[in-house]
Amino acid sequence: MAELKVGYKGKTVFGNEFTIISSLGSGGQGTVYRINCGGKEMALKWYHKSTIDKMKNPEEFYNNLRSNIEKGAPTKAFLWPVELTQWSGGTFGYIMALRPQEFEELTRFLIWDPKKRSMKARFSGITARCNAAINIIEGFRALHNNGYSYQDLNNGNFFINPQNGDVLICDNDNVSEHGVNFGIAGKQRYMAPEVVLGGAPDKRSDRFSLAVILFRMLFIEHPLEGRYSTPPCMTPELEKKFYGSDPVFVLDPEDTRNAANTQLNTNTLRFWNIYPEYIRELFIRSFGKESVKPPYERVIEKNWLDAFVKLRSETVPCPHCGKETFIANGYTMGCMYCGEKLTCTGSLKFRRFELPVFGGVKLYEGQVDDSDGDMHKIIGEIVRNKKDPGKLALRNLSDTVWKVTLPDNSSRTVDNGGVMPLIKGFVLSIDTAEGTVN
Question: Global pTM?
Fold first, then answer.
């Protein structure tokens, strides 16, 4: 069966009925419809019969989808399949939640709109961009911990709320156990070199794709597309070479064949040195020789997570212009927008994370100890004294009573809404975790 018509009624393998309301759009694999299923509006992805015919083993793909539905989503960030239709006319579909209107496809963050003179979609600030990266990294991590890997990953897999960085990961029908390959063709620009050359996807290849996604979120352009890899006429053979057998990072410090230039890599060159060294180093590792050649040493999710959590902690509102910029302990830095100098001379150091002592910095639950806590739940915020802006304190936004130990070993408690002065030598205890003001 090809396109479904409005009003078409069908059944799922779990006995529920659905009705087509309208078409939402069509892509390479199939068409997505708005449907009513069990009294709730949802989305149905219905595969083109040609897509099914090209699969190595359609029955295995179908059974994998059903198994994934029964297991459930790794995290709430996934627009995970929740229903599977019965076969009809040599094809089938699956049902998932509808994407909320406030979410934009990642592709729109990468496309220039000449009328607006900006990208078609823009993050509200650096914090939202970091939140989106953290959400995507956590999604990959949860997926891999559950024994899965992606089959087909690209910029169309992610929907992002530009205001806060919330993420929904879609097209999860291609997710399968590590090493399983259903023969679904992906986009070579997002594939790991070994997959471009015919290898089976696994969590290591996913980590390469993750690095590409993160790079594009920060720098817009592609990390492997420079002067060497953008010929006048791209052929399948050249594409396989540039993304598979001989990929070269545009900012590789040891191989300049594919060096970034002002015609192709404007954003990359503009923003590369704005981001801190620890972010740049992870990208150099991700696309350097150790990553693109066997045994494919890849940056793991934990390294990315720690880096973007740190980056978010070093993102502050400029006290002069109000826009978000970067700050780091021990440095005087110019606001990237107004140029005014910002100085940070202290930090609040926990065992795993260190926060700059600067107005507007947020403390998240997951930063206070070594366990994998919630990296989105704010439990504290650094505030300025209204009468003396040079004096800073940490406000307790948690449900936990904090203990503060002073250098003379005396102590006090800080309830919800209370503040702790950020004075060198003060020690903050939150449950079993400790942070020291340096």
Answer: 0.94
| Pairwise CA distance, residues 170 & 395, whole Å | 37
Alpha-carbon gap, residue 259 to 125, rounded angstroms: 29
pLDDT value of residue 188: 87
Confidence of residue 1 (pLDDT cuts 50, 70, 90): low
Asked whether the beta carbons of 10 and 88 are under 8 A apart, the reply is: yes
Largest CA distance in the chain: 79
Residue 44, C-beta contacts closer than 8 angstroms, at least 6 positions apart = 18, 20, 32, 33, 34, 35, 37, 85, 93, 94, 95
Place of tokens 């994370």: 353
pLDDT digits 0-9 by tens, 275-300: 999 999 999 999 999 999 999 999 99
DSSP for 180-226 reads: --------GGGS-HHHHTTPPP-HHHHHHHHHHHHHHHHHSS-TT-S
- CA distance linking residue 364 with residue 374, whole number of Å: 7
SS3 227: coil
Question: CA-CA distance, 434 to 438, in Å (whole number)?
Answer: 13
Which helix or strand (DSSP H or E) is residue 403 part of?
strand 402-405
pLDDT at 2 over 70: no
Per the model's pLDDT, the better-predicted residue between 56 and 99 turns out to be 99
165: left (phi over 0), alpha (psi -120 to 50) or beta: left
Q: Which residues share a beta bridge with 46? A: 31, 93
